[in-house]
Amino acid sequence: MENKVLFVASECTPFVKTGGLADVVGALPKVMNDKEKTEVRVILPLYRDIIDNWKEQLEWITSIYVPVGWRNQEASIYQLTHNGVHYYFVGNDYYFARHGVYGYYDDGERFIFFCQAVIHALDVLDFKPDVLHAHDWQAGLAIAFANIIEPIKELKTVFTIHNIKYQGILFKDAFHELFNLPAEHIGGLEWNGLLNCMKAGIFHADKITTVSPTYAEEIKTPYYGEGLHPILIDRQEDLSGIINGVDLDEYNPMTDPNLFSNYKYSRIKKKENKQHMQETLGLPVDGDVPLYVIITRLVEQKGLHLLQAIIDEFLQDDVQFIVLGTGEEEFENFFSDAQQRHPDKLVAYIGFDEGLARKLYAAADFFVMPSLFEPCGLSQLIALQYKTIPIVRETGGLKDTVTPFNEHDGCGNGFSFTNYNAHELLHVLRYSVTIYHQADRWSSILKNVNKSHYSWDDSAHDYAKLYQSFDPSFHKAFY
């Protein structure tokens, strides 16, 4: 039986993106529609940037009125189809005709309106989902409203946590000012004396997922759970982790037009990309020097304090290091200063350039991700596609996708360390240099990388199984 699923999210490629959430919501529906017994559609806020870039393709369906406290706010519903996926958009100039996506003082109210509008729109759309699947705190209240209002009989709900650090917290007074719900429902929204949109989604959803099996376990602990671990422990029977994928056609070194030299497995051509990058960025051109690359937001979560502690010591070795990213001033200044101290060893490109990023994935021997926490991680999956060895801390999706190399049995597709400790990072960096210069062991790890493919097909299949699990006959049919 085909499941009809409506994704509710605040961002989605190719329409609007601030992070990995948009990649997931943008990639999964097409794969699920093509490969699984599902029809997935997506509903999003109609931001100003979407209007500017997609106006000619948007088709107005209808307008409805949505209660937000004492006001009735108009929600204009639009639709379009792109790459075989049907999208709906909730428009309201007061809330969404602004530059950017987040960061406004009234973000809480904006997404209360959006989630209310999604539930009210179910009465007028030509699509009646079996499953409402909401993503992160901005859509969490759609799960709560669906549970309370019950717009579709026997509608099942799934809530996916992409990053539990961001929860959508409001003062408790907002319940009476904005929610239009009977008072007995405040308990499902309240957490530690405040309203919490993430908690609301977790509390009301039939099933809860997050973006890797390890992260699903981590967020049940005080260290990673950001205060929500007690409710996740209560709901642990309904909590699962499904690893994200990457588009294997989009991230393909054989066809990537950004590369100096395209390749599949050829080490010679990969080395040509490294030498070209060295020449372009002003490093000494030497194809035999191991090249380490970081492509990241320059924020604390990415483990950059560990690098601050050991980078000068590591650069005493015969290695090269390239950093691409932008973010907090502390880290931008640190890497810029490090480049001044080590002009022949380190390049800091403060900013972001997608074409340069692809060139660096192809040029690097090693990709470094010493994250403090990482729900899934995309960069290590891309690195594997470009036959670049990831070096990661064992957390979240990094632990699930990177297996540490074992020189005794030749297994493993990368290097890892356990504790958030700078000297553990330095040790594994230096160990990677040793393996790089041992031809047999280097060949073994590259062979393992060549077999590492994390496609959206696997993720789509796991989500389809989750949706089917709502059907009592599923176990008989599937097993």
Work out the radius of gyration. 24 Å
CATH top level label of the largest domain: Alpha Beta
Indicate the CATH topology of the largest domain. Answer: Rossmann fold
CATH architecture of the largest domain: 3-Layer(aba) Sandwich
Could you give the topology of this structure?
Layout: E1 3-8, H1 20-35, E2 38-45, H2 48-54, E3 59-68, E4 71-82, E5 85-91, H3 93-96, H4 107-121, E6 131-135, H5 136-149, E7 156-161, E8 169-170, H6 174-178, E9 190-191, E10 194-196, H7 197-204, E11 207-210, H8 213-218, H9 229-234, E12 239-241, H10 267-281, E13 291-295, H11 304-314, E14 320-325, H12 329-341, E15 346-350, H13 354-363, E16 366-369, H14 379-385, E17 389-393, H15 396-401, E18 415-417, H16 422-436, H17 439-450, H18 456-468, H19 474-478
Parallel strand pairs: 1-2, 1-6, 2-5, 6-7, 7-11, 11-12, 13-14, 13-16, 14-15, 16-17, 17-18
Antiparallel strand pairs: 3-4, 4-5, 8-10, 9-10
Describe this structure in words.
By secondary structure, the chain is an alpha/beta fold. It folds into two domains: 3-245 and 457-478, Glycogen Phosphorylase B (Rossmann fold), CATH 3.40.50; 267-453, Glycogen Phosphorylase B (Rossmann fold). The protein is 39% helix and 20% strand. It contains 19 helices and 18 strands. It has helices spanning 20-35, 48-54, 93-96, 107-121, 136-149, 174-178, 197-204, 213-218, 229-234, 267-281, 304-314, 329-341, 354-363, 379-385, 396-401, 422-436, 439-450, 456-468, 474-478, and strands spanning 3-8, 38-45, 59-68, 71-82, 85-91, 131-135, 156-161, 169-170, 190-191, 194-196, 207-210, 239-241, 291-295, 320-325, 346-350, 366-369, 389-393, 415-417. α10 packs across α13.
